[in-house]
């Protein structure tokens, strides 16, 4: 039988918050073959509660996870230093299983017969690749799965959009807009080979082509985007700039994430690789990989903090990674991805925190069940495209 203390240590280990002492205790406990089997049974059982095991080799991922624990007592520290995608598979499988179902048995025992979730007329769909392309002349083209599109200098298979490399023959540069609605996401490769992933409810303005030697400029009008910028050395030394709501991000060639939603009072820029300079009004700051600059639009203030990069950019890898996020923040994310309205009846629970990694291709009921089982709220009701939490 696994004790609550061991469950907590596993969660801290997966969530990269375990101390050296925590790792010593967990490592010693799991060296016992019987305990190792208890652990594997625990994970497999909780995995099957919320997920389908058909699409991933659970046994292989569990063994890889166990091997890591056996060999690396400093794993929780080392993981922060590794490339963010390297551990994504393990994180999705194991954290989603354990964190999402944490205290499931205790919750059901303590809440038997109380406010069980009810789904009425549920027509909520999982988000997918889709966007609207607006051309220079104002005409719009719907980009969606199964629909191929060809326009001037660009092609789309309905899930991605690619622009041809070319230099403008005219002095005037044409601009296109790519708008991703709620319930969508999309990938675009610009004419200079810069790659951009757009999250739900986002809009990007960009040139159809770039003039040789001139600064490459795009504008994130609103929403969230991850940029993998083609180096300036490939473009005659031309810099790259991203504008968003009075903020300017100046880069030479790097990877970073910008979050600038219209309904949020902050702009967040997170650097994954390289260097960027951020200008807001008369203030200029530089950040290094692993740092995030946040701009409080109401207070006109800038703040730099160290962050877990994986949590900030996991959305582009098909994952929700919530690390001590409030229920209100989480519901804002889910509302965009599932294109739903969320009502939290009891305002006192809006600040309750959730820790966990969940897959974006899950049904909304499973996502809500995982968060509920963590103790963030007691019940949820779905009617049409409205979710009510109590």
TrEMBL record:
Domain Protein FecR C-terminal residues, every copy: 320-388
Pfam families in alphabetical order: FecR, FecR_C
Domain (FecR protein) ranges: 180-276
Superkingdom to which the source organism belongs: Bacteria
GO molecular function, one term: sigma factor antagonist activity
InterPro entries xref list: FecR (IPR006860), FecR_C (IPR032508), Ferrdict_sens_TM (IPR012373)
Xref: Gene3D superfamilies: 2.60.120.1440, 3.55.50.30
TM helices/strands, residue ranges: 84-104
Alphabetized UniProt keyword annotations: Membrane, Transmembrane, Transmembrane helix
Entry protein name: FecR family protein
Organism: Sinomicrobium pectinilyticum
